[in-house]
Amino acid sequence: MILDHTGAGVGLAPLQNGIVPRGTRVQVFQQIFDVFLVLGTLVGVVVVGYMLYNAYKYRADADVKRGNEDLPTLGELPTGSGGGGKLFVSFTLSAVIVISLIAWTYGALAFVEDPPTPEDTVEVEVVGFQFGWKFIYPNGYQDSTLRVPVDTNVKLSITSEDVFHNIGVPELRVKSDAIPGQTTDTWFIADERGTYMAQCYELCGVGHSYMTAEVKVMPQDEYEAWYANTTAENGTASGGNGTAGNGTAGNGTASNSTAHALGGA
Ligand SMILES: [Cu+2]
After folding, report:
1. Are 53 and 151 found together in one domain?
2. What distance in Å separates the CA atoms of residue 236 and residue 142, rounded to the nearest whole number?
3. What is the extent of the structural domain holding 128?
4. Which residues surround ligand 1, an ion (CB under 5 A)?
5. What is the model's pTM?
């Protein structure tokens, strides 16, 4: 099962055998999607199938063919039959399915909202500004690119230094508000190396669509070697005047000119 892959590295293994999914956000949300897809399809097939069956059974010329004189005639009020057995079964079944689904989804989302924090968690502060992102590491190092080790729990503490922003990395299923004067915590685990794109999801001004950042997921040893060489002084990100945007190919110029134009107004 895919859950084993990531769980082993982050100390979540004992929790994974339960009904409620554990693992990376990608795995949890995928399982929720799968369960809803399968159950939704099943309910759809039963409902549409039963409807078609009855449409055929009670078709206009049915009583002629079957010689069934019990069929209601047009305008006749239904008298009921069977003591509501069918109604009881369908109500009970629906209630059981809906309530279990709510409980199960709630359990899964409660885990996503507040997961156990393993000891090797990498903590990064994220500061949004018009128009870019600063990633600040515990040693004070700042960068406009987020570098994290693979298969490791990453905790982000997100805030903004001007207006509302929202940082999201769709591929990692992580997205969170960046509100001035307030810190929002979220987390993710990337189980594949590579470069992902973080971007702003809150319309925050003219440079909003350029407000992206790279997320580089590195092998553990490479990350540690890289982090060992960082200090508070050698960071590339600085201040709130848009210079942090320089690190991102293609959008640095746009962010800078916009930010400077605003600053000079
Ligand atoms: Cu923004």
Report:
1. no
2. 6
3. 122-264
4. 165, 200, 204, 211
5. 0.70
